[in-house]
Amino acid sequence: MKSSFRPTLVNGPFQDPALYVALRWQGDALLFDLGRIDRLSPGNCLRLSYVCVSHTHMDHFMGFDQLLRLTLPRDRELTFCGPPGLIDNIRGKLAGYTWNLTASYTLELTVIERHAHHLTRARFRASTGFAFEPLPDVAAAPDTLIETPAFRIATTTLDHRIPCLAFRVSERRHLNVRTDVLAARELRPGAWLAALKDAVRAGNATTVISLPNGESATAGVLAHDLIEDQRGQHIAYVVDTRFDLDNGRRIVALARDVDLLYAEARFLDVDRDEADKRHHLTARQSGFLARVAGARRLEVFHFSPRYQGMAQAFHSEAQAEFRGETRLEETDAWIAELAREARAGGDGRERRVAEAGG
Ligand SMILES: [Zn+2]
Ligand SMILES: [Zn+2]
Known about the structure:
Elements: E1 5-9, E2 19-23, E3 29-32, H1 42-45, E4 48-52, H2 64-71, E5 77-82, H3 86-95, E6 108-114, E7 118-125, E8 132-139, E9 144-147, E10 151-159, E11 163-171, E12 174-177, H4 179-184, H5 191-201, E13 208-210, E14 216-218, H6 219-226, E15 227-230, E16 234-238, H7 245-254, E17 260-264, H8 272-277, H9 283-293, E18 298-301, H10 311-322, H11 333-344, H12 348-356
Parallel strand pairs: 3-4, 4-5, 5-6, 16-17, 17-18
Antiparallel strand pairs: 1-2, 2-3, 6-7, 7-8, 9-10, 10-11, 11-16, 12-15, 13-14
The protein binds zinc ion (2 copies).
One zinc ion is lined by residues 55, 57, 160, 240.
C-alpha cells in the first residue's frame, strides 16, 4: 500500500507559504499555512478539511478570505488550528463582512488554539451569521493537535518573537493482511483479523487469537506470516523561527526521522545576523536542523524576495549542510551541543514526542 500523503507547495519559494497535502485514500486534504492561495484550484480548496496556521503574520494567513469565499455556499466543515489568538483573528475576519443572507447555509468552521496544556476551541456557523460559539477546552498532551483514524498532527511552539507553531503530520502505520497466505491456509476474513491488528498495534504478541477454523494462535505467530507492517509517511513543516538552542531542540524533536521536512530559509547564511534579528532561519541553518533531526529529505522555501533569481543558491546551501558537506556544528558551542544531543536521541521527553508520531 502506497502512502496516502501527496504534498505540494502551492506557491513558488519566493511567494507566500502554503503546503497542500492531499490524502489519497480519504479524498480530502490538509493545508499548512494560508498565505495567498490563488494558485490552488477551487476543486482542491474544496477538498480541505484541516487548515493549520503557524502564526497570523499576513503572508501566512491572508488566504483565509479566499478560502471562505469558495467554501461559503458549500456543505462543508472546516477546522482551523493554530497558536493562541487564532480564534480572535478568525472572529475579526468574519466580523469584517455582512452575513444577513446565509441563514440557509451549512458551512461550519471550528477553530482550535494550541495552548501549553490544553486546546481552546470555538465554532462559527454560516447559518447564525458566524456568531462566536465557545466550545469547552480539551486537555491535550503538549505536542498533540489533531488525531484521526488516518493521521495525526503533532505540533511544537517556536519563538518568532511571537509563538509560531511547527507541525508534523504522520500517517498511521499500515498493517496489510496478506490475502495469498489467508487463501493458502483456507482462513476466512472476519472480526479475528481486526483483533489481530489491534494486538499488533498494541505490541501484544502473546494475545491469543481464535481463528475461524476453530484453532487458535498467538498474535505474534500469526502476524509473522499474515501481516505486512509498513511505517506510515511523516512530514514536518517548520517556518519563521530563530536559530537558537530552544527552537533547535524543539524542531529536532518534532522532525526526527521524518520522510520530508519543509523548512523556511528566509535568508542566505551570509546574512545570518539579519536572520537572527528578524527571528528567521537561513538556508544553511535549515540544512543543519534537517541533518541532525535525521530527516530523509529537505525542501527549503519562503525565501526573502530580496534574493529574487537566486533560488539555486538557497537549495545548494541548504543541501550542502544537510548532507554534511559543510558542518555548522563546529562553529558554536551551543550548535555542537545540539548536534551531540540529537545524535544521542535528545532527552527522554523529546524522544517520546518524536516517537508519538509513529
Ligand atoms: Zn512571521
Ligand atoms: Zn513568514
